[in-house]
Amino acid sequence: QVQLVESGGGLVQTGGSLRLSCAASGRSFSSHTMAWFRQAPGKEREFVAAIRWSGGTTYYANSVKDRFTISRDSANNAKNTAYLQMNNLKPEDTAVYYCAAGAPAPGRTWYRYEYNYWGQGTQVTVSS
Q: I need a surface site. Which of 1, 69, 97, 120 has the fewest CB within 10 A?
C-alpha cells in the first residue's frame, strides 16, 4: 500500500522558516516526481515545487522561487523522503501543504491531476 506522510508544519511568524518532510513508502519512486502543492481556504490547490527522483531536476512556482527549496534523499537511499525548506515565509504562504507523487508528462509537472499519490496534508500558518 502506497503511503505519503507529511510532517513539519506549524505556526511561524513572518520571515521565519519551516522544513516539511514527506516520507513515501509502499513502492519504488525512482522513476517518479515528488511534488508539493498547497491549498488555502477558499482557493484551488496550487503547485509549489517538484523534484524528479532520478537526477534531481527541480521546478518551482514563481511565488516561492528563491525562498523555498525542494530536495530528496539520495537516489541510493531507501528512505524515499522528500523535503521542502521554506524560508522568509509570508502570510500568503498560509495553507495546507500536500505531498504528491506521480509521473507527469513533459511540461505538466505543475498540473495536480498528473499525480496519483497524495499525503494527508500538513498545516502551515504564517502570522503577520
A: 1
Residue 128 has pLDDT above 70, yes or no: yes
Tens-digit pLDDT profile for residues 55-113: 899 999 999 999 999 999 865 556 789 999 999 999 999 999 999 999 999 999 999 99
First to last CA, the chain: 40
> How far apart are alpha carbons 17 and 11 in whole angstroms?
10
- pLDDT, mean over the chain: 94
Distance CA 76, CA 25 (A): 15
The three cell numbers locating residue 91: 502570510
Q: Is 26 exposed, middle or buried (0-12, 13-18, 19+ CB in 10 A)?
A: exposed
Residue 89 CB neighbours (<10 A): 22
Compute the distance between CA of residue 21 and CA of residue 44 in angstroms, rounded to an integer: 22
